[in-house]
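Hi R.,

As promised on Friday, here is the backbone we talked about, encoded as structure tokens. Could you run it through your design pipeline when you get a chance and send me back a sequence?
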């Protein structure tokens, strides 16, 4: 059967391409039509509007920036919503608040559809390589129906329980990611300002026990001043906000997260919102240069 995919941004486009290249019969749509052209070349069918995707498919993956974008393509709050989601399985792969996801699941189920949370851990490079990790939540039958479809995009799929546990798990994982990358950027800034050999610094990090897939990619970007986006500052700032809100609601202390929020906010204010998250080093440099 044909599968729908809506949202072909930095992450969504390579994810959808992996599905198409694996032989999945895809119907895709994106707000910016030019993002659809690589999918068309890979054999996917390009819909003229979101409603066409729902008419032609029964399983639809959504990789969209926020709840407003999801509501818009689903027609949530309008008569079109039931037509779009009834007898469909909607797979939410982006990052929104857990409360939003819980309410969306209720609305979809009330309209006669099924819902699966499937946020992913990874950035553009793992998305291109089909090496994402999906955190699944929802009813077991719905999860098992879509799990095989995720294989071209994800090298692991882990069931986390009921909605919104998939998104809560994603937020916990991203808290670790943000603090790790920010710490690495601060270490690189420290090394650079002391006049150390940055290639040696990179080699020692890569050879040591703290090395990881993310550190190897990000330390290279820091040393070479490569801010080409894999995961943007604007996106990580929004996810940071979602994590902070979830922490506050549960009365959880998150001091490292709060520092990261300030630094990523300063990075965006400096004009680097579309840059990769390693650009947070520029906020550190600005603080150093101002004597703060």
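Update: got your reply. Pasting your designed sequence below so it's all in one thread:
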């Amino acid at each position: 059967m044909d599968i729908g995919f809506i949202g072909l941004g930095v992450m969504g486009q390579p994810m959808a391409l992996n599905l198409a290249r694996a032989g999945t019969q895809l119907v895709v749509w994106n707000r910016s039509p030019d993002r659809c052209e690589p999918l068309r070349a890979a054999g996917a069918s390009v819909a003229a509007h979101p409603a066409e995707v729902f008419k032609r498919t029964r399983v639809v993956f959504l990789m969209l920036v926020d709840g407003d974008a999801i509501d818009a393509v689903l027609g949530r709050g309008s008569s079109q919503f039931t037509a779009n989601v009834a007898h469909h399985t909607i797979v939410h792969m982006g990052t929104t608040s857990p409360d939003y996801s819980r309410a969306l699941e209720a609305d979809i189920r009330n309209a006669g559809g099924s819902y699966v949370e499937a946020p992913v851990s990874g950035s553009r490079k793992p998305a291109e390589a089909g090496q994402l990790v999906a955190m699944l939540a929802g009813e077991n039958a719905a999860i098992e129906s879509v799990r095989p479809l995720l294989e071209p995009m994800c090298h692991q799929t882990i069931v986390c329980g009921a909605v919104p546990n998939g998104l809560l798990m994603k937020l916990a994982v991203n808290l670790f990611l943000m603090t790790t990358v920010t710490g690495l950027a601060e270490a690189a800034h420290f090394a650079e300002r002391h006049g150390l050999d940055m290639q040696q610094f990179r080699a020692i990090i890569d050879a040591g026990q703290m090395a990881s897939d993310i550190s190897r990619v990000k330390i290279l970007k820091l040393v070479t001043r490569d801010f080409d986006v894999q995961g943007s500052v604007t996106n990580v700032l929004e996810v940071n906000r979602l994590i902070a809100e979830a922490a506050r609601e549960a009365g959880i202390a998150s001091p490292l997260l709060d520092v990261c929020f300030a630094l990523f906010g300063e990075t965006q204010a400096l004009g680097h919102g579309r840059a990769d998250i390693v650009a947070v080093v520029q906020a550190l440099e600005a603080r150093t240069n101002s004597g703060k």
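One thing I noticed while checking it: The first helix runs from residue 12 to 21.

Thanks again,
M.
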